[in-house]
Amino acid sequence: MKWLQKHANLIIEITCNLLVVLFLYAAISKLLDYQHFKWQLNQSPFISTYSDSLSWIIPITEIGISIALISKEFKLEGLISSLILLGCFTTYIIIILSYSNHIPCSCGGVLSSLGWKKHILFNLSFMFLNTIGILLTKHKKSIARLQGKTENL
Prior knowledge:
The protein is mostly helical.
């Protein structure tokens, strides 16, 4: 337990940095090939009606989460938001795999080369890291409150 307390900050920072790289990479890939991303969303079952809005909302949300993750003030909110976004996307993939014959991939770059099952495992791995980051951040904040310290959060 002492090892974890000693290294909690490092684990939180590594987790946040990995998530920032993931979300910025995803957002930039989508924006650089915006027309293709929008077309893929339009081909997607269940969400094609919302493809115009989602084509902007998704990358902007990914960038916003990245900003929150690098901010001391909003790190916990960034971790929670990223877990929710990853959870929504993973759930969407599972639903699409279960109920649709046509499954377009709106991922960019390297992630588009993953198969769907590998993509789910990839997301679940990040969700696991994300959960650890949330738990450590909450634990750190509760200890600081007990000690009356709030300046280093």
